[in-house]
Every structure is written in structure tokens, then in C-alpha cells.
Amino acid sequence: MHNNKELREHTKEVILRTGDMIIDHASGARGFLLNKLRYIDMVEDDVYIWEVDWFKSESELPAGSPKHMEEEGLKLSIVVGTISWHSVKGTTFEPLKKEKI
């Protein structure tokens, strides 16, 4: 079983870029990463937020789909498999097995 520190280590394997596509498995929504924004936080120092252009091919996008996603949270979602990631560079991440999380 992985602890939070080990999960965060795996996030280093996920290098997000403008144009990458993500798929939210909970809603079925798909989106493209448009722009990385930097915020200065008193506690966390630098925080990065991704602007997401969501679309959904079969039906309307669910209400509440975030237009912005915090980078570390997005990476953790990719590592655990709730979001799939397809990089413009051809890179993906195979989510950790549930029994290992």
C-alpha cells in the first residue's frame, strides 16, 4: 500500500503541457489543458493552476466541472487513475493498481 509521500513521488513522472488531453472518469468529460497559471501562496509558496477546456462528445458537460484545476491535485488524480492523461508528447501514465494504493 502506498502512502501519501510515495504517491507524491509518482506525480513527478507526470509532466503536464499545454495541449495535453485529460479524461475525468467520474463524469466522462474530456478536456484540453490550455494555460498554466502561477499563483503565489503565503503557505505553499508557488501554486500552479491549469485552465481546462472541457468537452464531452456524447452529452452535455456535467454542471460543476472545474474550469481550473490545481496542478498537484490533477497529477495525484492521474496517478491514482481517476483522471487519464494523454500528453501532446505521446506520454501517458499507467495508474497505480488499486491494491497498491
Task: Please characterize this protein's 3D structure.
Helix content is 18%, strand content 34%. The termini are close together. It has helices spanning 4-11, 71-80; strands at residues 21-24, 30-41, 45-55, 68-70, 83-86. With 101 residues, it is of the alpha+beta class. The mean pLDDT is 83. It has one domain (4-91). A 5-stranded antiparallel beta sheet has the order 4-3-2-1-5, with helices on one face. The protein is globular and about 35 Å long.
- Specify the biggest β-sheet: 5 strands, antiparallel
> Average pLDDT across residues?
83
How large is the radius of gyration? 14 Å
Q: List how many beta strands DSSP finds.
A: 5
Write the layout of secondary structure elements.
Blueprint: H1 4-11, E1 21-24, E2 30-41, E3 45-55, E4 68-70, H2 71-80, E5 83-86
Antiparallel strand pairs: 1-2, 1-5, 2-3, 3-4
Helix pairs in contact: 1-2
Quick overview:
The protein is of the alpha+beta class and 101 residues long.
Offer a few descriptive terms.
2 helices, 5-stranded antiparallel sheet, 34% strand, alpha+beta, single chain, globular
